Amino acid sequence: MTTRHKHPFYFEALIVLALPVCCLADAKPAPAQCAKVFETKAQDSVALTWEEGSEARIEVASADGKEHRLKALLGDLGLKDAVGVSLPVSQFIKVSPQPAALTNAGLQISVTVERTTAVKPGVYSGSLILSEDAAGSNGCAVRVPVQLTVRGVVPLTDKLTVHAYRWLPFSSLWTCGECAVPLNGPLDLKTTALRNDVPLGGIQNKEGGAAAVFWTGGQSVSSEGISQLPVSLRGLDGAGQYEGQLKLDAAGNKAQGVSLSVDASDIVAWPILVIGASVWLGLRAQRYINVTRAVWLLREEEAALGDDFKESQRRFVEGTRATPSAGYSISEALKNERRALREKISGLQTNATLSLDTAGEPYQSMLAAFKKIREAIALWGDFTDELSSLRAALGTQADAGAPPPNYEGQTPALLQALASLLVGRSLTLADLTQTDADVRAAIAAAQLWHTLKDRLDKDSERFQALVGFSAQLTQDQQSRLTAAGQKLAAERVGLWDAGTAESLSGIASPGGDLDSAEQELRGLLSEVGGAHPAAASAALTTGDLITHGDIGLLSKSFAKGAESPAEPAGDAEREQFYARAMRRWDRRLTLLAFAVATLGGLNQYYLGKPFGTVKDYVALILIGLGTRVALEAAGAAFGWLFRAATPGQLPGHA
After folding, report:
1. Cβ–Cβ contacts within 10 Å for residue 164, how many?
2. pTM of the prediction?
3. Confidence band (pLDDT; 50, 70, 90) for 369?
4. What is the 3-state secondary structure (H, E, C) of 593-634?
């Protein structure tokens, strides 16, 4: 049996009596009720911005009309720097006065941002605690909400397009004067959380090229007064259109994105230079085709003149060997003429721009020199044949017949003069042409001289036949016979004295003394023919070998050989006019080609588009060359249609 079961009432009573004593030993006195000793006037919160000098004031009044000692304490706002490290707010925000005496007149508490540092943008909240600074005071503390706003970078737009330019093609020398993000307000460089060593974002093109976008560490203002955040592009691979996103922190820690488009191109000078160089290459190609190559062909043809002259010289040497005519020579003259021709050809290339002015005086002068030399070379080979013909005309008919009285032992003046042409000498090309014409005329003159001599001989036979029948002639017939004989004698003397072919023309002219004497003798023969047939028959057997018409043809042939062709009037003026017109339009065509190529190339490949790849430059080169070639091809086509040249002729030579 236990005690608990033996004394149950005593034990329970003891517990009841001990409870109050236990409770009294553990109990604490209740806190006294605080008294409202001060209050704020019409102010719910303190609003500050993260700027040096930003200030907020709080009006505090005594709630019980008594004077109190006031203490103000700013709680932790959770302030953090740009990388997220907490900052002690007391180092940056000051509360004054601290402490302060609160009287019936009230008190003004100032909360001021005294200095700033780089802080993560956002809105920071906390409390300003106002309490009584006195031992044993029971005044109630007042909490005033505090809000600190740290503004971030706020872009003015969410889309931005800028242009970057490269100074040197295929290099990394880029410049971007437009690379700046417009902002909604000025940037505080001291408080911003942006860093210039961390990229704001990146951009990329379709070809896989990429670049990073960095803040330069400063700010700028546009000409319109808009604040800007200057950025730089690092690692830009090449020309092209790049797209990307920039991330800028704004108030409230909300990410504000800016879609960035970058047109990366070479500076405009390079496409213009490439187009200009392409046009220049096209012009050089045109100059080669129309000038250089044409001049080379002329030089080739000039060089071929040497071989042509060798052949003509060979013929001349063979035809004049062992004769006085072998002394003829044009070698020195031809050498000088060819040297002058080469100088004229060189002058064409020097003075020409895009094409040879085939209508101009220099080209025509060159053509004339070419023609002169070619004709002289061809004539030189034939000249030996002419000399042979003259020797034959003078040699095979050396018998001049019976001379007139007092002319015994003398050579007819004309034949002696013509024989002097067979004696060679050095000739210029102009002398060769004239000498050849003289030789041709001499051949005709020698033939005419002998023809007239034969006529006089036959007329003399008629005269002698009629003299044999003078006894049967009437007085009138005898007088007519005597007069005819005198005319024949005079004409024979004239033939012997004639020194030029023109003198022979007078003797052979119809109606002259020789013709009159022949008519008279024929008339007498006709009259006496019936009575004396033998005399008429003997006289008629000496018929004319050459008629008056034949003599006229010989005379006309000689005169035609001595004539020079007449030049058409006004050609020089027309040539100068068209030459000036062609030069003027050549310049205009060149300028037009350059303008078309430049405008077309810039419009297609540069304006509003990124430019600077190898493909871009190749395209511009093709445009520059293609424009020039197209114009040249069109010109060549029209030239072929409207003024087709004869194959084998020099340009401009009709």
Report:
1. 22
2. 0.50
3. very high
4. HHHHHHHHHHHHHCCCCCCCCHHHHHHHHHHHHHHHHHHHHH
